[in-house]
Amino acid sequence: MNNLPKILVLGATGKVGSETLRQLQLAGDSQPIAAVRSAEKAQALQARGIDTVILDLEQPHTLKPALQGSDRALLLTGYSVDMLRQSKRFLDAAKVAGVNHIVHIGASTAPTNEVAHWGWHQMVEAYIEQQGFSFVHLRPEAFMQNITGPGYRWLDGNIIRQYVGNARWSWIDCNDLALVAAHALREPEKYAGQTIPLGYDAQTFDEVAAILSQVTGQPIHAEARPPEEFLKNALAAGADPAYMTCVYTQFKLNGEGAIPHADATFDNFDSITGRPPTTWQMFAEQHRDELTQFIQATQNS
């Protein structure tokens, strides 16, 4: 009989969720279960030997069967104000199902009340605690993968179009976030009750462009654009207006230097994972071929 703890991972086909699953599978001391919204999405994961369940946060009837038997869960939500309703719905169902430990992926730990979606994540954190779960709150800063996607991306050809002017940001590789999430899920007795900020390399977009240029040999430049352009484009693409207005506000305040500690970095990664965090130099070297191909393809498209 398999007595390994069952860990349910939401966002199982996304950047962070899929890597969290891979790390759990590599460790081999738990039974990871991928939560997906359709049988089609489950197929690739099943081919890797990962158990799957159908769970759609917009379909309440899917929660009870998906949560059945799970001991721990990774909670992450999409880029919509619906995250508030969805998170409460999931947590209420998880409580009834007997889930003990929740690792929640939130947002920046910068001390401001002006960026609403950061506050939404903190409200979810408070609800997790109020419901009596064992918990770990993860608060990542800006994702390095947003340079090329998938999904939203900054890089277009050899131009990084950005909306925060000369602001210096704290950055994290999504794979580093996933590795910390895996440890927090595997070792609740070690990390329970902690709020862990995650950001390890502070760089402006001009500095990021210089690093990418040096590593790839491609002339890459950062171009500051007005944040109003970001909001217009995001809404035209059909993104959630409430959430994108939050992001617009963040960009605007970043550009004005009004986000406290936006460039804060932390020294917790080595002690959690046993290795140094990924810097922009390391990220560029690891993804040199991919970045070069991406730049050339988008230049020619």
Question: Gist?
Answer:
The chain is 46% helix and 18% strand.
Features:
301 residues, 3-stranded mixed β-sheet, alpha/beta, 7-stranded parallel β-sheet, 13 strands, 13 helices
Description:
With 301 residues, the protein is of the alpha/beta class. 46% of the residues lie in helices and 18% in strands. It contains 13 helices and 13 strands. The chain has helices at 15-27, 39-47, 63-67, 82-97, 116-130, 174-186, 188-191, 205-216, 227-236, 241-255, 269-273, 280-286, 288-300, and strands at 6-9, 31-36, 51-54, 72-75, 101-105, 134-140, 142-143, 155-156, 159-162, 169-172, 194-198, 201-203, 221-224. A 7-stranded parallel beta sheet has the order 3-2-1-4-5-6-11, with helices on both faces. The radius of gyration is 19 Å and the shape is globular.
